[in-house]
Automatic annotation (TrEMBL):
Keywords per UniProt: Endoplasmic reticulum, Heme, Iron, Membrane, Metal-binding, Microsome, Monooxygenase, Oxidoreductase
Names of the cofactor(s): heme
Biological processes annotated in GO: organic acid metabolic process; xenobiotic metabolic process
A UniProt-annotated Pfam family: p450
Record's subcellular location: Endoplasmic reticulum membrane; Microsome membrane
Topology within the bilayer: Peripheral membrane protein
Protein name per Swiss-Prot or TrEMBL: Uncharacterized protein
E.C. designation(s): 1.14.-.-
GO molecular function, one term: oxidoreductase activity, acting on paired donors, with incorporation or reduction of molecular oxygen, reduced flavin or flavoprotein as one donor, and incorporation of one atom of oxygen
Binding, heme: 456
Function: May be involved in the metabolism of insect hormones and in the breakdown of synthetic insecticides.
Family, similarity comment: Belongs to the cytochrome P450 family.
GO cellular component: endoplasmic reticulum membrane
Taxonomic lineage of the native organism: Eukaryota, Metazoa, Ecdysozoa, Arthropoda, Hexapoda
Length: 510
């Protein structure tokens, strides 16, 4: 009996120790809400984020409440630090200690149960494959004239689709997403995705949209409590994510198998898939990190990095153009002045005859550049970026950050910093124009694609597509709001912020 009492006492003591320890903040950890036993801040975070209208809004509220640019949280058993403000955000993005990625169940679920690809890996695998992928993408035209050629062709296809609407109200986002995705697929797979007739492109876009809605930057409940997939596989989104992963995998593998067959017939180096297949064929040993799964995950990373955020940015730009006739008129004047001066015999009024405004002449489009930058700053569609992982224990802002802490980056807090911008809630492209020269300049507080070696993989594609598509659209169409249509400037929360559905009319310019 006494032995049973002794063992019971030991067990109770152990449970109490673990309970108290789960509530204890690490020494000199950034301030934040109190930890609950076992759960940390998980339930409070999810409840208050929904009430506030998004995680980014809640983080900014807590930053004011605790008077700190760094917040210290605990989500499940995972320590999380949120960096806000220009100084902290810049330091996190540029320091090697913060270049890691968390390794949890949810992030592995993102990459189909693996720790592969580029975006969600770190260390040797990340260095090797990021360098290889970017080298091969440049080889097939990423950021060069070949990419511009793909963009021009897709821009013409987009113009034809918009002309086919005959000025009737439409939601433009799907057509934009199709065009951006096809530019990316030409670089990855050397061809456009199958045409609208067989529905492949629409199915893929729908797949990516449904998938993105299931992910949030903190990983949801599955990151903190992966065992919930056994209890509530549907409610947690686990079953749907697995289904979408399977569909994506099948789509990618169909293209990879086509390339594998063609590679056997002749040497090819015309796209990223061929480059990976050749690297797999030439590997010296079985431990090589070049394999089929790594290829699939790399394709997925480029898809995510280069497609949805780009089309959403263009979508928001069109919404602003429809709402602000003054901005649209000024952009048209700039485009006509630049394009007509380079088109032999073209008058300033014959915008349809003007030459395509090549990216090499982008420096002549100062107001367009300023407008695009203001769209990215004002709407900040990725308000929280990351997540990062501290590779070793370190200091940040005077606080101690333990090894393997997850770091989230509050980019919105930089783009809406009132002290720096003065009127951050006003949409004003002129803030990026030099008052003396009228030239567009890059502000140090403007960082939509991130900084350092972890900056967005798709930044070159995004910048080129956004510029070229908008120039061509404004050049050929008057973007008009239908009667009674009032788009909302308040975006829908998620892993990226998206505009609420709205309709515009594309009226052909004469």
């Amino acid at each position: 009996m006494s032995a049973l009492i002794f063992l019971s006492t030991i067990l109770i003591g152990f449970i109490l120790f673990k309970l108290i320890n789960s509530m204890r903040r690490p020494k000199n950890f950034p301030p934040g809400p109190r930890f609950l036993p076992w759960l940390g801040n998980t339930l409070q975070f999810r409840k208050e984020a929904r009430a506030a209208g998004g995680q980014h809004v809640l983080f900014e509220h807590w930053s004011k409440q605790y008077n700190s640019q760094l917040l210290g949280l605990k989500l499940g058993s995972e320590y999380v630090v949120v960096a806000m403000g220009n100084a902290m955000v810049r330091e996190v993005q540029l320091q090697e200690v913060f270049e890691g990625r968390p390794d949890n169940f949810f992030l592995r679920l993102r990459t189909m149960g693996t720790r592969k690809g580029i975006t969600c890996t770190d260390g040797k695998l990340w260095y090797e494959h990021r360098n290889f992928a970017m080298k091969q993408m440049r080889h097939v035209g990423y950021g060069r004239s070949q990419m511009e050629g793909h963009i021009e062709r897709e821009a013409e296809e987009l113009l034809n689709k918009l002309a086919g609407t005959h000025g009737t109200p439409i939601e433009p986002v799907t057509k934009l997403a199709e065009s951006v995705l096809n530019v990316l697929w030409c670089l990855i797979a050397g061809k456009r995705i199958a045409s609208d007739e067989d529905g492949t492109l629409h199915s893929l876009l729908d797949l990516m949209t449904r998938r993105s809605k299931l992910f949030d930057i903190c990983g949801g409940l599955l990151a903190q409590f992966p065992w919930l997939r056994h209890v509530a596989p549907n409610k947690t989104g686990y079953n749907l994510i697995r289904q979408l992963n399977t569909e994506l995998y099948q789509f990618f593998m169909t293209t990879i198998e086509e390339h594998r067959q063609q590679l056997a017939d002749s040497e090819q180096d015309t796209d990223l898939i061929y480059a990976y297949l050749q690297a797999m064929a030439n590997k010296d040993d079985e431990s090589s990190s070049f394999n089929e799964t790594q290829l699939v995950m790399t394709i997925l990373d480029f898809f995510i990095a280069g497609s949805q955020t780009t089309s959403n940015t263009i979508n928001l730009a069109l919404m602003i153009l429809a709402m602000r006739e003054d901005i649209q008129k000024r952009l048209l004047d700039e485009i006509e002045a630049n394009c007509s001066s380079n088109a032999a015999g073209a008058s300033s009024s014959s915008s349809g005859a003007a030459a395509f405004p090549h990216l090499s002449r982008r420096e002549s489009f100062d107001y367009m550049d300023a407008f695009i930058m203001e769209v990215q700053r004002f709407f900040h569609i990725t308000p929280i970026t990351g997540p990062r992982r501290t590779l070793w224990s370190t200091k940040l802002g005077g606080y101690d950050i333990p090894r393997n802490t997850t770091i989230l980056i509050g980019l919105r807090s930089v783009h809406l910093d009132k002290e720096h911008w003065g009127d951050p809630l006003e949409f004003r492209p002129e803030r990026f124009l030099d008052t003396a020269t009228g030239k567009c300049f890059k502000d140090d507080y403007f960082m939509p694609f991130g900084l350092g070696r972890r900056r967005c993989l798709g930044d070159a594609l995004a910048r080129a597509c956004i510029f070229s598509f908008l120039v061509r659209i404004v050049q050929h169409f008057h973007v008009v709001l239908p009667a009674g249509e009032t788009p909302s400037l308040i975006l829908q929360p998620g892993i990226t912020l998206t505009p609420k559905p709205y309709k515009v009319m594309f009226v052909k310019r004469q």
